[in-house]
Amino acid sequence: MSEVTRPTLSDALTERMLELIRTGGHRPGDRLPSTRELSQRFAVTTPTLREALRRLEATGAIEMRHGSGIYVGAAIERLVLPNPNMREIRAAQLLELLDARIVIEPPLAAMAAGRAAEEELTALKQALDTAGRHLRGEDAELHDANMSFHRATARMAGNVVLHEVVDALLTVHGPEQREILQLFDDRRRDHEEHLAILAAIEARDAAQAEERMRAHLVDVKTVIEQRVQSPR
Question: Boundaries of each HTH gntR-type domain copy (predicted)?
Answer without folding.
Answer: 7-75
